[in-house]
Amino acid sequence: MNEPVFVIPLWADLTAVGLGGIQGALFASGFRGERRLDMLGVAIIGVVVGMGGGLIRDLLLNVSPTTLQSNWYLLTATGAALFGMLLAGVFQRLNAVIVGLDALVIGLFGAFGTSKALVLGLPLVPAVFVGVCSAVGGGILRDMIMGLPVAIMHVGSLYAVAAGVGCLVLASAHELGVNIVVAAIIGIVVTAVIRLLAVIFDISLPEQRALYRRKVAVETSTIPIVKP
User: Fold this and answer.
1) DSSP 185-208
2) Cβ within 8 Å of residue 140, ≥6 positions away
């Protein structure tokens, strides 16, 4: 029996790749001083962000990388990166644009990764894992190439949390019988909204040291203090 085949609409996949390319180029264009990149460097970062999530998704699912099966993916990622360079020259303050695109990109890649995993027969939890890896994969590759601390591992980032919640909502809705396209749209919206709210209201997971200090505080509070 042939394995099930899941095909993400080309226009949707290219939209995610294009937005990722723009976001990556805007991010790379914002560096100054010793970390500034030339045009080729910015283009490479844009391509990595645009195509990285899809490559990681397909590698985890052990299927042929979709982004390498058509000329359009690399062309779209490269063109989007070049367009992102132009935008960097137009906008004086890029942070809001980068954050907005970032929220949408992780939502798109998370939804596509989870949807593809579910249709290929993976259980709910592994499907969510694939979606999260797809959502944050481009950002991880970007940070590694640029020699930066990986963003999802540091306080102040809810990349993986936002992607995880969105992917879980998508997978749960699909398990309840919701059409996969509708479930994917819901997952994208949930991921993007959580990510934007986290940035706007400065929401983050507690720092690991804060948990340790809280434990120490509780333990030491039981130690009697003898006053002279």
Assistant:
1) HHHHHHHHHHHHHHHHTT--PPPH
2) 52, 150, 152
62 is written with which tokens?
């052990």
pLDDT beyond 50 at 82: yes
Going by C-alpha positions, the residue among 76, 96, 104, 98 that lies closest to residue 166 is 104
Q: What does residue 218 show for φ and ψ, rounded to 5 degrees?
A: -65, -45
Rounded distance between C-alpha atoms, residue 181 and residue 46, angstroms:
27
Task: Judge whether 57 and 130 are in contact, CB under 8 Å.
Answer: yes
Exposure class string for 162-196: b at 16+ Cβ within 10 A, else e: bbbbbbbbbbebbeeeeebeebbbbbbebbbebbb
- What's the token pair of residue 179? 């059409």
Beta-carbon contacts of 72 under 8 Å, excluding residues fewer than 6 positions away, are 10, 14
CA dihedral 104, 108, 109, 111 (to 10 degrees): 130
Kindly report, residue by residue over 103-118, the tens digit of the pLDDT: 999 999 999 999 999 9
pTM of the full structure: 0.85
Tokens describing residue 103: 């929220």
Task: List the structure tokens of 96.
Answer: 């809001």
